[in-house]
Amino acid sequence: MGDGLVPGAAMSKGKGMTGHQHPNRGLSVEWFTPPHILKALGPFDTDPCLPGSANGLYPQWVGRIWLNPPYDRNIGWWLERMVRHRNGIALIFARTETNNFFEFVWEQADALIFLRGRLHFYRANGTRASGNAGAPSVLIAYGKHNADVLRRCTIPGKFIQLRS
Known about the structure:
The protein is of the alpha+beta class. It contains four helices and five strands, in the order H-E-H-E-H-E-E-H-E. Strand 1, helix 2 and strand 2 form a beta-alpha-beta unit. The longest helix has 11 residues.
């Protein structure tokens, strides 16, 4: 994109791990990852959740993955795919009590950063949403290299090593 934004994932209404206050409800379901997050963590080879793209669960994932999955009740499918791929970083809400978090994060991830404050996602036109994401977020590393990237990044939050 010419505006310098790197796409993240669409956010939509959901329950459980994915239920949240939608920034600017009703205007759009496509939101982009804040550019400072991707700048601090990149580069990535593949983003299977580009807004408006085909279902990224089905094509072969290649290289280092950026995963900001649709925030809906099917988030477990995306996290399971990331667990199998073992090379990337995911951004999801920090719903630490859910089955998906226990199965695909606590039991499978290498490291986490619980982000300080709440993110403001961006619209496709490059403007920041006026409302925050409505819930705390966490970055999840799968693979040693990605855990090292989280450990060294300057994104404000609390780093937690889960596996060495």
